[in-house]
């Protein structure tokens, strides 16, 4: 136990293990004066009360098989004992739903004598922890301000609340209620909880993810690339309900966002990975924030492919119907209109219509329902293109003009679309170049002078073990000694690249993740530069048919919501937006 938040975390995990559907947390003075965690779970039998406070007493493991497939959150049987050793602890519980006859164990001081007596309590358990670290001044000194410690508690509760939407969480600080997350059962209630925890902006700029493959299931929300953060502070990844931080996971996610994220920005996500508990070792670190996957390569591939497909669909008419940087007013306005509420888990992300309707029930959809209900063309006379009926109108609509040689203006069923012509064309060219490369494969080219590198013995060994994987990446590198390898061939497109740096990066990736995207990302960079040079420059006059062709290409192209540098390629200014600008309908 290093701080009040760690006590709260252990207590909530116990409550969840006990099947609680409601958990109330009272905090005083940042948790140093009082922490009270009350639940409506199974309670603790009188006979076990004293035992629960003893070290290595856990009711959760009865056999070796249990140990191997640890599904419950707590399993060390140490939490209560170590809390008891540094605070005045009171544990009250009742196992019967019919009566309020509970029992209470009081434990104080180093000698840890426990006294049990009757005490009224409804079914469930209340853990009360007073004067944390009162007997260990050295640790008390390490505590930060009340506000900081409370902030840590808040973060612990947010994580738990994200992972267990069906549980009600109530938090008070110094007698004032700070959080009340009601149990969320439906998709829209769940989405509301995500909005409450991660912010409305996030909830409105997400793409829903949901995929199962064999024993693996991934679901949750990832932010559209144009909603990125300057810090990695909105990243929640849960493995079987437990929040974790893991290099393999971050690598797979970063790889999925590779060329859609603005340089130096961090993606935002709330993701849940579910797998057979036997496939993951959660016991590698005492705070259980780290995990080890048995099939790390398979997990990496599954995460990467699922997320890159979800992000690939961020294009007009797909997972999201608008684009725009979240940091600017445009996005805020879009958010207010509820135009782009990401799909919910399990919802299809294929067609335009169902998404609009689904989005309406989500957070911030109130405005949108009104907007969509009015339909198209009721406010103004339909344009010739629109007479064929709204079913015929493509997501980005039809071009009406070009502005200063930079932007295309188009009319679609929601209103006005603005397209950055160069940025959009660049993405289209880039995706085409990548597609061509992927169908023809990577051509290798021998180095004029093969290059020797000294590496670690593990890295040298991996060159032989993963020769096939390396060949597929266009790299031929042979071990020529225990700690020496020779680079003979590289991808033709990267023949001018820094062979040493590239090979070193590839080898270390293979060691750590079992896979490497270095070659692909170096080649992508190259293609991206080529695409930039090969795309329409600003100030080129386009005809209407040319502009329309570009709009259609955007709709067909993966990731076309952002240019190769992660900037948005288009924004929607809907009729409601425009009406607001002109104070219409007020
Ligand atoms: P662990 O959770 O690893 O078993 P703890 O020290 O956290 O160890 O808890 C010890 C035991 O006390 C648990 O195994 C459980 O039987 C009981 N216990 C603790 N908190 C609760 C609770 N909120 N509801 C029901 N039982 C609890
Ligand atoms: Mg526990």
Provide keyphrases for this structure.
single chain; 586 residues; Heat Shock Protein 90; Ribosomal Protein S5, domain 2; formyl-coa transferase, domain 3; 36% helix; binds adenosine-5'-diphosphate
What would your notes on this structure say?
By secondary structure, the protein is an alpha+beta fold. The chain has three domains: 4-181, Histidine kinase-like ATPase, C-terminal domain (Heat Shock Protein 90, 2-Layer Sandwich), CATH 3.30.565; 199-312, Ribosomal Protein S5, domain 2; 338-586, formyl-coa transferase, domain 3 (2-Layer Sandwich). The chain has 20 helices and 22 strands. The strands form five sheets. An eight-stranded mixed β-sheet has the order 5-4-3-6-2-1-7-8, covered by helices on one side. Strands 9-10-13-11-12 form a five-stranded mixed β-sheet, with helices on both faces. Strand 3 and strand 4 form a beta hairpin. Helix 9 (247-256) packs parallel to helix 10 and helix 15 (457-465) packs across helix 17. The longest helix is centred in the C-terminal third of the chain and has 20 residues, at 421-440. The model is unreliable at 319-388 (pLDDT under 50). It binds adenosine-5'-diphosphate (ADP) and magnesium ion. Magnesium ion binds at residues 10, 13-14, 74, 79.
């Amino acid at each position: 136990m290093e701080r009040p938040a760690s006590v709260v975390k252990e207590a909530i995990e116990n409550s969840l293990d006990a099947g609680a559907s409601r958990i109330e947390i009272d905090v005083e003075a940042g948790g140093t004066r009082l922490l009270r965690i009350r639940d409506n779970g199974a309670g603790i039998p009188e006979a076990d009360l004293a035992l629960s406070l003893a070290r290595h007493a856990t009711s959760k493991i009865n056999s070796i098989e249990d140990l191997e497939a640890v599904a419950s959150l707590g399993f060390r049987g140490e939490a209560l004992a170590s809390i008891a050793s540094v605070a005045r602890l009171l544990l009250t519980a009742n196992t019967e739903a019919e009566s309020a006859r509970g029992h209470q164990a009081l434990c104080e001081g180093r000698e840890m004598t426990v006294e049990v007596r009757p005490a009224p309590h409804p079914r469930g358990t209340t853990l009360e922890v007073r004067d944390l670290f009162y007997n260990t001044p050295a640790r008390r000194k390490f505590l930060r301000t009340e506000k900081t410690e409370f902030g840590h508690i808040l973060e612990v509760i947010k994580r738990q609340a994200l992972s267990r939407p069906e549980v009600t969480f109530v938090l008070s600080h110094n007698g004032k209620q700070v959080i009340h997350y009601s149990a969320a059962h439906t998709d829209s209630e769940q989405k509301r909880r995500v909005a409450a925890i991660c912010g409305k902006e996030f909830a409105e700029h997400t793409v829903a993810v949901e995929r199962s493959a064999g024993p693996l299931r991934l679901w949750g929300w990832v932010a559209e690339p144009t909603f990125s953060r300057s810090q990695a502070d909105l990243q929640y990844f849960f493995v079987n309900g437990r929040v974790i931080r893991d290099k393999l996971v971050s690598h797979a996610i970063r790889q999925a966002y590779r060329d859609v994220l603005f340089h130096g920005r961090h993606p935002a996500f709330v993701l849940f990975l579910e797998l057979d508990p036997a496939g993951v070792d959660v016991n590698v670190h005492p705070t259980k924030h780290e995990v080890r996957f048995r099939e790390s390569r398979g997990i990496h591939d599954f995460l990467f492919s699922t997320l890159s497909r979800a992000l690939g669909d961020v294009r007009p008419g797909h997972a999201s119907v608008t684009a725009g940087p979240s940091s600017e007013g445009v996005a805020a306005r879009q958010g207010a209109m509820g135009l782009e509420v990401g799909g919910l888990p399990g919802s299809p992300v294929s067609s335009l219509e169902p998404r609009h309707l689904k989005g309406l029930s989500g957070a911030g959809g109130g405005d949108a329902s009104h907007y969509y209900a009015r339909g198209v063309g009721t406010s103004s006379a339909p344009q010739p293109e629109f007479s064929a009926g709204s079913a015929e109108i493509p997501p980005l609509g039809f071009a009406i003009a070009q502005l200063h040689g930079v932007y295309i203006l188009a009319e679609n069923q929601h209103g006005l679309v603005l397209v950055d012509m160069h940025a959009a064309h660049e993405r289209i060219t880039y995706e085409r170049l990548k597609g061509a490369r992927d169908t023809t494969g990577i051509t290798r080219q021998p180095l004029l002078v093969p290059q020797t590198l000294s590496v670690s013995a593990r890295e040298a060994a991996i060159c032989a073990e993963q020769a096939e994987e390396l060949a597929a990446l266009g790299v031929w590198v042979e071990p020529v000694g225990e700690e020496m390898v020779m680079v003979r061939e590289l991808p033709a497109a990267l023949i001018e690249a820094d062979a040493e740096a590239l090979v070193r990066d590839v080898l270390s990736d293979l060691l750590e993740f079992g896979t490497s995207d270095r070659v692909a990302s170096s080649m992508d960079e190259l293609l991206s530069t080529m695409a930039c040079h090969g795309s329409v420059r600003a100030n080129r006059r386009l005809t209407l048919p040319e502009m329309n062709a570009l709009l259609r290409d955007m709709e067909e192209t993966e990731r076309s919501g952002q240019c190769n540098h992660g900037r948005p390629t288009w924004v929607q200014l809907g009729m409601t937006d425009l009406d607001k600008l002109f104070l219409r309908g007020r």
